[in-house]
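tool_call: predict_structure(chain=1)
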Amino acid sequence: MQFKTKLVPGFAPSGVPILSILGQATFRLENNQSAQYDSEEQLPFSDSDTYWAGGRPDLDPIKLESELVAWKTMTDVIVIGNAKTPRGKKAFYLDSSFQIGEFKKVVRVFGKRRVYITGSGLAFSQAEPFESMPLHYGLAYGGRDSISEEGVTYLYPKNPVGKGFVVKNNVKALQDLELPNLEDPKMLLSPQNLILDRFEKWKDYPTPASFGYLGRNFYPRISFAGLSPEQLPAQQLQQQQALENMESVGTHSDKGLSAETPVLHSAYFSAASSGMSLPYLRGDESIAYAYLDAENPRFVSQMPGLHPKAYLDIGEGAKQMDTVIQSLLIYPETRQMNIIWRAAVQYGGIETLASFTSLDYGMEA
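tool_result:
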């Protein structure tokens, strides 16, 4: 088994500079079987952001986000695919779900719907039947409203690229308004709750439903950009304390490493959709999903249970390190799974790289 590897400099949550070794491997998923190393195709590292539709960061949802991140505080679980009806059938709506271990998330998927005006108020059209529906944020609740109040454009902070968001009771904004295809079944839109009336009420409105990457400009993720870290949750504090046992390279003094205030809060790098950044996975969890595979309405598999080791040699001898799973990417369409592991060492910062007499790193099963 071979791993694609990258060396990424960055900062731990405490602000200590680190070098992280990332290792990625692609596995093949088969129903009712454990995932197996994909000997035919190893997917490339996602080292830059790509977008659905026209590729415009301000208007289009992220398809793949760069995974060259030195430290994520939890495992990001991302599903990149479509809701699927059983082969040969259509549905007006269905509930797609994804489960890993004890965690489960459900997204209600509708066919195309619109708002129309009646003599007594608003109504939603019946959903059109569908066979396949993308599960990205462009089809979830949100978007921009530039019609309901003249001269004002409102963006839904939780999802600026979605649809269905309207602030004022304005016929021009409401008539034929496209409704979201993806919703949280516990907080569905209705003709009665569609209009905010006041923009300040946006925090009370639905968390957009998706299995894909959360945009960098989505709330609450954007709130961690450019801010000094506040008190970390208990789990992050435990991880910060674990740094005391992390290997160090490029310094021969126990006090040679100093912490800085990171430009970005470490939580900013968690890119999974709501609820899908999970405590670090073990790597042997079961996976089950519903209505993401046309041949198997319920698909069950299991992670391979690997615990690879990373190594780094800067001329002082190779150091071996334990790894954690930083990201898990599921591609139901091709029945593939990418696992990205991370190991990290403390070092003296970018300016010390020139003093390394060699640089050899990798990951082994």
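agent: The chain has a mean pLDDT of 90. Proceeding to next step.
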